[in-house]
Amino acid sequence: MSLRSRYVSRRSVMAAGGAVFFTTPGAFADELLKPTPRLTEGPFYPDRLPLDQDNDLILIRDSTTPAVGEITHLTGRVLTVAGTPVRGASVEIWQCDANAVYLHSRDSDRRKEQQDQNFQGYGKFETASDGGYRFRTIKPVPYPGRPAPHIHIKVMQNGHELLTTQLLIRGHAGNERDGVFRQVRDTKHRDLLLGDFHKLAESKIGEWSCNFDIILGQTPADTKEG
């Protein structure tokens, strides 16, 4: 466990029980959630953010032409390790389009013919009191150099970056060949980056859903104090 994780766990336990922390070490260990591991931002965080930055990446503004790809409803909550919902956190996601092109000048400028101009490529959502977030996007696809399809995620609050990570598809064959994913040596930590993508039985157009809770190992207060 990292020093930061131990620090956060200690703060959480002391808040819950004060002196109990010292008399019964580990008494609350099983009650704490496991923090979502950090994973690289990568080279393609948008260097020119789109004018439309809402949580629907399938349609841009008033366009009626949807993006190419398998529509996916991504939902979840932002929580502390104690399970407390984080309100007012800004959740950002970005990913390549169905043609494996990112919304970044180093990628899209040289591959304009391949880029899906109807895919927003980036979106954000501010959590409410339940810590919940939701996006409509496409099921991620692999691209040259990254055999594991993934969605990039960044969580911000009060001007502080709390977490940058990636969501991968559980069971995808490319995961074990993906160099970035393999940098996470602990298999238990790897499991925390995997999401279950399910086909929506009621959907007539083959939509998917994925619920992925984001567990923060630190808060703005921790950042300020630590």
From TrEMBL:
Residues 1-29 form the signal peptide. Residues 41-181 form the Intradiol ring-cleavage dioxygenases domain. It holds the Pfam family Dioxygenase_C. It comes from the Bacteria. Keywords: Dioxygenase, Oxidoreductase, Signal. InterPro entries: 3_4-PCD, Intradiol_dOase_C, Intradiol_dOase_core, Intradiol_RC_Dioxygenase. SUPFAM superfamilies: Aromatic compound dioxygenase. PANTHER family: DIOXYGENASE, PUTATIVE (AFU_ORTHOLOGUE AFUA_2G02910)-RELATED, PROTOCATECHUATE 3,4-DIOXYGENASE ALPHA CHAIN. Belongs to the intradiol ring-cleavage dioxygenase family. This is Protocatechuate 3,4-dioxygenase. The lineage of its organism: Bacteria, Pseudomonadati, Planctomycetota, Planctomycetia, Pirellulales.
